[in-house]
Amino acid sequence: MKTKIGFPGLLKFSLLALLLFPCFALASDLSNKLNAARDSAVYLGNQIDELDKKVGDSLKEEKSRLSSTSELLQLREKHLNDQNTVLLKQMTGPGGYAAQYSSFKAKLDSFDAKCADYKSRCDRTFTEQSDVDACNQEKEQLDEESKPLHGESARLIDLKLKLKREKTELDDAFTMLNKQRSDLSSLSEKWGEKQKKYNAEKNELAVAYKQALEKLKQLSSQYAECIGGLPAQTNDKEIKRRCGDVNFGDIRKNILKWQNMRTGS
Fold first, then answer.
1. Domains detected in the chain
2. Most distant CA pair in the chain: distance in Å?
3. Contact 27/209 with Cβ under 8 angstroms?
4. In this structure, are residues 28 and 245 in contact, taking their beta carbons and an 8 Å threshold?
5. DSSP letters of 84-120?
6. How far apart, in whole angstroms, are the C-alpha atoms of residue 107 and residue 116?
7. Rounded distance between C-alpha atoms, residue 106 and residue 108, angstroms
8. Cα(36)–Cα(216) distance, integer angstroms
9. What is the pTM of this model?
10. Each residue's pLDDT tens digit, 131-180
11. DSSP 3
């Protein structure tokens, strides 16, 4: 008697395959999406880190240099203002050049008046020797009186030239300071433009990164449903076989971490 192959058995196998293959297909689809979401999140996170290292750190260093330069210029301005205050006192303050010159001018005017008086009386021909002797004696007195005036005049001329030279140097220093401030302002403006571009690029990456994390969290929660039906001691290889082949290790730990992570506001 021949044994026939029963169609009911074959039909049963076919129905079982139809039930199982869609499950495998769904698991494969989920794991592929999960792998893609994880890869995208890792890539975008790396892009942000790379942008921070290449651009962000450079901008921080540049800002630090600009701030240091600004502080130095402020100190320089204070020093120049202090010098200017001292110079103004030496020029116009009590006991300064202007006061000294005014005092000297009063003595010079008094001396000129004596000279004018002497000339009015002695600049002529005398008949008496006593008158000649008197005028000569007065002239000698005026000559002696003029010596300290000549010395004071020379000193005031030197002082005036010195103050004028210091004023010129100080004006040049202020001109240089203003140029350095203008250069700093230009550099700060360029830094601001670079910072603005960096912020825009980072914000764009951050938005994409947040979306990738949200997707990863969503898919991890779905994958966790499958893991939840497996024994706690199930290893990664069996998890991949039962729930879908993912491209990372410590599956249970990572899935738990991702499904519970905060993705920001």
1. 26-259 (1.10.287)
2. 187
3. no
4. yes
5. HHHHHHHHHSTTSHHHHHHHHHHHHHHHHHHHHHHHH
6. 14
7. 5
8. 9
9. 0.71
10. 888 899 999 999 999 999 999 999 999 999 999 999 999 999 999 999 99
11. P
Cα angle value 234/240/241 (rounded, 5°)? 90
Distance CA 97, CA 160 (A): 7
**Helices vs. strands in the chain: H and E counts, helices first:** 6, 0
Structural tokens at position 40 = 């995208």
Tokens of 94: 């009590």
Residue type, 33: K
Q: Cα-Cα-Cα-Cα dihedral of 32, 34, 37, 39, to 10°?
A: -70
Please give the backbone phi and psi of residue 101, each rounded to the nearest 5 degrees, phi first.
-65, -40
- For 236-261, write each residue's pLDDT tens digit: 999 999 999 999 999 999 999 998 98
Q: Which structure tokens are listed for 244? A: 């879908």
3-state secondary structure of 247: coil
CA–CA distance, 118 with 67 (Å, rounded to integer) = 70
Distance separating alpha carbons of residues 160 and 90, to the nearest angstrom = 10
Q: What is the residue type of 220?
A: S
Radius of gyration from C-alpha coordinates of the chain: 49
- What burial class does residue 188 get, using C-beta atoms within 10 Å of its C-beta: 0-12 exposed, 13-18 middle, 19+ buried? middle
156 is written with which tokens?
């005031």
Let me know how long the chain is: 265
Residue 213 near residue 34, CB atoms below 8 Å: no
- The whole-angstrom separation of Cα 30 and Cα 38 is 12
User: Can you state the percent helix, strand and coil of the chain, rounding each to 5?
Assistant: 85, 0, 15
Please report, as a single letter, which amino acid is at residue 29. Answer: D
